[in-house]
Specification:
Order of helices and strands: EEEEEEEEEEE
Strand content: over 45%
Helix content: under 10%
Largest sheet: 7 strands, mixed
Number of helices: 0
Number of strands: 11
Structural class: mainly beta
Shape: globular
């Protein structure tokens, strides 16, 4: 059974940093697309960042570009999201996800596996 388990969320002041981790089990995702989405209060789930299949390039939502960095450790089947210069509008539940098609998509409906989410709260 495939599981994605996030950790690292919490409460931080604006301008601070957090590092999220997502440990995968039940399947090796080293060649698949891994990414992060988030869902803020009263909002739809939105794309944050992806590490595309094949271990190549990364892609970010405009709202986090330059502040967030996605990385992965294939040996540990883990993906990370380093979040710097956090803003109150970054407050959301952050979800790790995996996509096993070669299609590069930021539509959450196309992604195949999901974690349970971790809360990130940024105070002003």
């Amino acid at each position: 059974q495939v599981q994605l388990v996030e950790s690292g969320g919490g409460l931080v002041q604006a301008g601070g940093s957090l590092r999220l981790s997502c440990a995968a089990s039940g399947r090796t995702f080293s060649s698949d697309t891994m990414g992060w989405f988030r869902q803020g209060p009263g909002k739809e789930r939105e794309f944050v960042a992806a590490f595309w299949w094949g271990g190549g390039s990364t892609y970010y939502a405009d709202s986090v570009k330059g502040r967030f960095t996605i990385s992965r450790d294939n040996a540990k089947n883990t993906v990370f999201l380093q979040m710097n210069s956090l803003k109150p509008e970054d407050t959301a539940v952050y979800y790790c996800a995996a996509h096993i098609s070669i299609l590069r998509t930021t539509d959450s409906r196309d992604w195949d596996y999901w974690g349970q989410g971790t809360q990130v709260t940024v105070s002003s």
